[in-house]
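2024-03-11 09:14:02 INFO worker-7 job=invfold-0412 stage=load source=structure_tokens
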């Protein structure tokens, strides 16, 4: 007897999985639409410049958990405050546009991550999933200017 465990998961788009956390994907968006300064909830700030560079402050890293999987802290990622970005279609789910950021780290390395785009063209929002996506742990960045 063969079990087809998870067979239904293959037909489920990533956008359907994240819809409860991130909202509806903003599909018709250009790089010029996402340029600007974003403030984060619960913390963080991101500025995307027209030339493909960025600056960050208080950028959150994956949360720390206690022994029963409760989030205890959201540490700040040690960045130089600089990096680069580009707007592209999510390679795993074509429904999503994402801003791919590459942050320079204080130790000389770098960390890249996708930020899904939601909201409106006039006021886009960027989502950075932290930890377990099933728990909707995320940094939500909203464009302020």
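2024-03-11 09:14:09 INFO worker-7 stage=emit residues=145
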């Amino acid at each position: 007897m063969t079990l087809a465990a998870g067979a239904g998961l293959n037909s489920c788009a990533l956008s359907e999985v994240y819809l409860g956390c991130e909202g509806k994907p903003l599909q018709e968006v250009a790089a010029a639409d996402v340029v600007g300064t974003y403030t984060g909830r619960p913390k963080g700030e991101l500025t995307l410049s027209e030339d493909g560079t960025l600056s960050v402050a208080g950028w959150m890293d994956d949360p720390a958990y206690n022994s029963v999987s409760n989030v205890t802290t959201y540490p700040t990622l040690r960045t130089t405050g600089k990096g680069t970005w580009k707007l592209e279609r999510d390679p795993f789910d074509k429904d999503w546009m994402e801003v791919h950021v590459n942050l320079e780290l204080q130790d000389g390395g770098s960390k890249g991550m996708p930020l899904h785009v939601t909201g409106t063209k006039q006021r886009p929002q960027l989502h950075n999933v932290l930890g377990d996506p099933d728990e909707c742990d995320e940094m939500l960045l909203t464009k302020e200017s």
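2024-03-11 09:14:09 INFO worker-7 stage=report msg="The chain is about 10% helix and 45% strand."
2024-03-11 09:14:10 INFO worker-7 job finished
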